[in-house]
């Protein structure tokens, strides 16, 4: 029997998070992906045009289609999850460049 690959699809979603100063900030969920045994979400700020920063959160499955963002306290886990996100970005950029170069 082959391994089942689960795809996580989502519409472009904006979430509002409160920072440590109590200020609400909007973020887009840029990518949802699996790294190791956990599911993660990479968020980018919703208020900037040229994105140079991102934040990674662990997703806690609440059942059904509901998830909760969890802070990642362990630096090693955060770095590993961020590395996987950056690989996703590299693949996305490569695919975009490939598609642009092979249009009819």
| Beta-strand proportion | 35-45%
E-strand count: 5
What order do the SSEs take from the amino end to the carboxyl end, as H and E? Answer: EEEEEH
Low-confidence stretches: 1-10
Termini, distance in Å?
39 Å
Overall radius of gyration: 16 Å
Mean pLDDT over the residues: 83
Domains (count): 1
Main sheet: which strands, in order across? 1-2-3-4-5
The profile of the biggest β sheet is:
5 strands, antiparallel
Derived structural class: alpha+beta
Helix content: 25-40%
Please, how many helices? 1
Shape: globular
Quick structural overview:
This protein is an alpha+beta fold. Helices cover 26% and strands 38% of the residues. It starts with 13 loop residues before the first strand and ends with a helix.
Structure description:
It is a single chain. The protein has a five-stranded antiparallel sheet. The chain has one helix and five strands. Helices cover 26% and strands 38% of the residues. It has one helix spanning 75-101, and strands at 14-18, 24-35, 38-45, 55-63, 66-70. The chain has one domain (14-101). The protein is of the alpha+beta class.
């Amino acid at each position: 029997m082959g391994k089942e690959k689960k795809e996580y699809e989502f519409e472009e979603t904006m979430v509002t998070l409160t920072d440590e100063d109590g200020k609400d900030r909007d973020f887009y969920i840029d990518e949802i992906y699996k790294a190791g045994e956990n599911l993660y979400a990479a968020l980018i700020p919703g208020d900037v045009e040229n994105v140079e920063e991102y934040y990674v959160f662990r997703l806690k499955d609440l059942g059904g289609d509901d998830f909760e963002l969890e802070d990642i306290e362990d630096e090693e886990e955060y770095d590993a999850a961020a590395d996987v996100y950056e690989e996703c970005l590299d693949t996305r950029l490569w695919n975009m460049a490939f598609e642009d170069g092979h249009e009819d």
